[in-house]
């Protein structure tokens, strides 16, 4: 790949990087900065990109690190508020007093059928954006940046019980949102 | 025997920590008998897979 081709290829994946960074950082400006840093790092590290992996995969992994750096910095500057510990209430709404589901979980069918539809990811992004900031930050560190839970608690200086509660809530909200906005619409079948 | 309420908690926590052997056995036993919780487990796994596919698409 010549330098010009390399640059053209980077330009092509820029919008994808930008969308991903905005989703993570929830702020155009920091997203823009993270993407700039990433593209620079990619250009500088062109030698190290051997072409063994896909360029996009390689660049996304650089971007992940840039995003983690920013999240770390943010967490130092603006610590997350502790989530209230009314976890029992969270559970209670879902279940009958005897411990059975109040409402049986729906069958979401074959995931790949949803993944094949571009619209699905728009709905998913919408649902992720709807998460409150504190839930979203922890959830993204866990799921998108694939950090270990212990590492996240330490990084954000929150107790591990708080970490569990936050992750629990984020998962349950996303599930509810997808049920409502995607599966409940009868689009999956 | 675990209730669905207890089982759903293990399903979710299993995403974020390694369950103990006893917890895994109890959960598997419950899931074998309970279609509702199997669906829930599938939903939770679906979520993880979906979110991880976001950046690459």
Provide a quick synopsis of the model.
Chain A has helices spanning 3-25, 28-44, 55-77, 87-94, 111-115, 118-129, 133-143, 149-156, 160-181. With 189 residues, chain A is mainly α. Chain A folds into two domains: 3-77, Orthogonal Bundle (Rna Polymerase Sigma Factor, Chain: A), CATH 1.10.1740.10; 87-185, Arc Repressor Mutant, subunit A, CATH 1.10.10.10.
What does this structure look like?
The complex is a heterodimer of chains A (189) and B (57). Chain A is mostly helical and 189 residues long. Chain A folds into two domains: 3-77, RNA polymerase sigma factor, region 2, helix turn helix motif (Rna Polymerase Sigma Factor, Chain: A), CATH 1.10.1740; 87-185, Arc Repressor Mutant, subunit A, CATH 1.10.10.10. Helices cover 68% and strands 0% of the residues of chain A. Chain A contains nine helices and no strands. Chain A is globular. Chain A starts with a helix and ends in an 8-residue tail after the last helix. The relative contact order of chain A is 0.11. Chain B has one domain. In chain B, helix 1 packs across helix 2, helix 1 packs parallel to helix 3 and helix 2 (21-33) crosses helix 3. The radius of gyration of chain B is 12 Å and the shape is globular. Chain B starts with a helix and ends with a helix. Chain A binds chain B through residues 16, 20, 23, 56-57, 60, 63-64, 91, 94-95, 98-101, 104-108, 111, 114-115, 120-121, 124-125, 128, 142-144, 146, 149, 163-164, 167-168, 171-172, 174-175, 178, and chain B through 3-6, 8-9, 12-13, 15-17, 36-37, 39-40, 42-44, 46-57.
């Amino acid at each position: 790949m010549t330098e010009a081709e390399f640059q053209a290829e980077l330009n092509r994946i820029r919008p994808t990087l930008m969308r991903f960074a905005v989703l993570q950082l929830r702020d155009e400006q920091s997203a823009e900065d993270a993407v700039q840093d990433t593209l620079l790092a990619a250009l500088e590290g062109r030698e190290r990109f051997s072409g063994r992996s896909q360029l996009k995969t390689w660049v996304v992994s650089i971007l992940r690190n840039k995003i983690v750096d920013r999240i770390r910095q943010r967490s130092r500057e603006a610590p997350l508020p502790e989530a209230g510990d009314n976890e029992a209430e969270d559970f209670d709404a879902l279940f009958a007093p005897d411990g059975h589901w109040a409402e049986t979980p729906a069958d979401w069918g074959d995931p790949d059928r949803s993944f094949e539809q571009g619209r699905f990811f728009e709905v998913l992004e919408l649902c992720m954006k709807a998460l409150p900031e504190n839930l979203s930050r922890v959830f993204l560190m866990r799921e998108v940046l694939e950090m270990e839970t212990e590492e996240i608690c330490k990084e954000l200086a929150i107790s591990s019980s708080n970490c569990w509660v936050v992750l629990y809530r984020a998962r349950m909200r996303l599930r509810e949102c997808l049920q409502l906005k995607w599966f409940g619409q009868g689009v999956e079948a | 025997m675990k209730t669905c309420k207890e089982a759903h908690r293990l399903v979710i926590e299993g995403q974020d920590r390694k369950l103990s052997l006893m917890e895994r056995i109890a959960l598997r036993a419950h899931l074998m008998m309970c279609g509702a919780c199997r669906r829930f487990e599938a939903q939770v796994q679906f979520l993880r897979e979906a979110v991880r596919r976001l950046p690459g698409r």
